[in-house]
């Protein structure tokens, strides 16, 4: 079962600052791949919110796990026990394909409703395979992927990676790891180390902020006060055109192990970091997700 993707119109605004082009964050589509897990609605809602904020389209994929279909061939009983998250603990033999089709239809309906509400274009397809394979396959046509960090499919794959950088590198686009959905983003925690990649972190934060009281806290990752001053000035210049209310805090790379406490104290709605940041030299993505209680966006 595959729905023909709707046409998504894309427009590129001319770059008025050639010097900023190497660090320009270009997001034209948000990818969300879901399966039968209970958290799929949350991932779809987050993708729609992000697409609306960024004025881009959504690429939705429902992934049919081939292992579920193999269960029927491995069992001789009339009823088959199913993995947690399928919606029921067991099912009648011969009904798994129908259940998968029903899940796909429900996901499509939710995505269609959210797209209409948020006024964004969307594409939807059903594919059979492993979640990680589907994400990698679709990564070539998207710039930002949304995954449910507590979901059965994605988190179990990401846990296998030896480092945060390895987990982020498993996907080509930037990755938003959900925790409990996406709240209206009024407090952004941006991890900044002065590199070109972390300049994209600032761009992403400015683009996602909403509301008149929105604020960005920039964590300057350095032990040197002089380097922190240089980073702060660089960040101010980058954020000045957006008129972002910004606060700065110098944090040594070793202190980032207490990131969870920092974010809680700042009431952060989202943490944004670069895949090559110093934060991820001392922590894995899994470490960060277990420390904070909000979404984490890893920018590539």
Question: What does it look like?
Answer:
By secondary structure, the protein is an alpha/beta fold. It folds into 2 domains: 25-178, Rossmann fold (3-Layer(aba) Sandwich); 187-299, Rossmann fold (3-Layer(aba) Sandwich), CATH 3.40.50.620. 38% of the residues lie in helices and 22% in strands. The protein has helices at residues 40-54, 66-74, 96-118, 131-138, 152-158, 164-169, 196-208, 225-239, 259-266, 279-282, 285-291, and strands at residues 29-34, 57-64, 79-81, 90-92, 122-128, 144-148, 174-178, 187-192, 215-221, 246-251, 270-274, 296-299. The strands form 2 sheets. Strands 5-2-1-6-7-12-11-8-9-10 form a 10-stranded mixed β-sheet, sandwiched between helices. Strands 3-4 form a two-stranded antiparallel sheet. Helix 1 (40-54) packs parallel to helix 3 (96-118). The radius of gyration is 20 Å and the shape is elongated. The model is unreliable at 1-23 and 150-169 (pLDDT under 50).
Per CATH, which architecture of the largest domain?
3-Layer(aba) Sandwich
Strand content: 15-25%
User: What is the CATH C-level name of the largest domain?
Assistant: Alpha Beta
Measure the end-to-end span.
Answer: 33 Å
Write down the domain tally: 2
Rg measurement, Å: 20 Å
Look up the CATH topology of the largest domain. Answer: Rossmann fold
How is the biggest beta sheet arranged?
10 strands, mixed
The coarse silhouette is: elongated
Identify the CATH homologous superfamily of the largest domain.
Answer: HUPs
**Counting H and I runs of at least 4 residues, what is the number of helices?**
11
